[in-house]
Amino acid sequence: MIIIGEKINGTRKAVAQAIRDRDAAFIKDLAKSQAEAGSSYLDVNAGTAPEREPDDMAWLVTTIQEVCDTPLCLDSANPAALRAGLELVTHPPMINSVSGEKPRIEGVLPLALEFKTNLILLALDDETGIPNSSEGRMKIVDRLVGLSKDGGLLESQLFVDPLVTAISTGTENAMITYDTIRSVREKYPECHITSGLSNISFGMPLRPLINQTFMAMCVQVGMDSAILNPNDRNLRAVLLASEMLMGKDRFCQNFSRAVRSGKIGDPPQK
Amino acid sequence: MIIIGEKINGTRKAVAQAIRDRDAAFIKDLAKSQAEAGSSYLDVNAGTAPEREPDDMAWLVTTIQEVCDTPLCLDSANPAALRAGLELVTHPPMINSVSGEKPRIEGVLPLALEFKTNLILLALDDETGIPNSSEGRMKIVDRLVGLSKDGGLLESQLFVDPLVTAISTGTENAMITYDTIRSVREKYPECHITSGLSNISFGMPLRPLINQTFMAMCVQVGMDSAILNPNDRNLRAVLLASEMLMGKDRFCQNFSRAVRSGKIGDPPQK
User: Fold this and answer.
1) Chain B residue nearest residue A221, CA to CA
2) How many CA atoms lie within 13 A of B208 on its CB side?
């Protein structure tokens, strides 16, 4: 499972404050704790005004790389901010994200092609927003995968986000996500499939339980990556159990090791 | 989701004691609490020596029916005990279970056909025990579904148990169960699919978490029934979330109602 740690995000109040104050210690702690929890990438979203964002992105990238080797997932719609980050990264990065929206295709996709990055593809466009069917989402995915491959990216560099909409707003919403995941898995066997899953439970009670159950179901149908809080012990436990229950944990070694080392299960006694 | 409450089972020490002592209050409590928790059937297993079992089964059935209307799932390999129960039940019962084993085919199946009961079919036989592939299990299922239908049962009266073996003894064991569930769902669309799921986590730490994750995955691939402890609040919550996330809970009504009434989530304050 390719975990993209979501916590360095300037739309979160404490992170925004740390960016304004150039509080490197705060950002480094977030980076280290997410890396230690098993993140394959750390999402980096400055979330600031366009004119400040390139500087903020550069500062974040430099600051994070002083304490950890985890590749970064540069999260912005602003080409200048992305370029500032891309010029500083020391490990093969990911860009979050291109969609079928014109500014993304024209502004973000060329950067991914130029720097040959991993790339998240969102199944939405300006015409329909998020299509309310897997067929609609696949049309956009087909186009984005085509453009990316034509531009020289490998299928294995692409992370398709099938998109998740709240179950409280549509009884079939989870099913649309599963169908999209299955279609991507079948049509593009080398593509990764990733998503932030917590939208599913928006407006509902018992959100963590709904999110965990949905995670297991998405892994069942072929998702192999997720954008999440890697320090959520329960979610991490469900992820490890999900992989084990999909035949991807030989002799249950990863799961058992995580329990023994206190990464999941009852936290170690201090 | 068709829940078969598992708690009235004479292989559990306290239940065995209650059966010996004819402690009706104890059995009635077990019946009521499982019925109130939403069981569609209550499993009834006397678990006693063959010569005592018919009397014990009859006493259990009578005792339970004094306090609840939930149909019973008569759980025995002993034809005399099953007949004793079948002659007393007041609601359409289920028999647990027929397998490909000769004594079950010869002793139990005829009773299911005679009384036209619902029937659990186990994917094992005397030749191979539990086959280590979904193909092997489906061969047995095919035979049992055929015999049942030829004998006059409807496909919708059949509950196929795909069988679950411990993930700690085989990395692919969960996958074999999913494949069997998918095959049954495809080949026999009217059949129900049920199982006791907790074997999956035998020998592992964090068993409840593994069981919950496995439950979500089995529902994802088509399971519509489970044999479990209906008083396990977490498991019930995962079940309700799973149904909701499979598009089977219109407007999230069942899930929301269960939270509001305190059936799942934080227990109501006393």
Assistant:
1) B220
2) 11
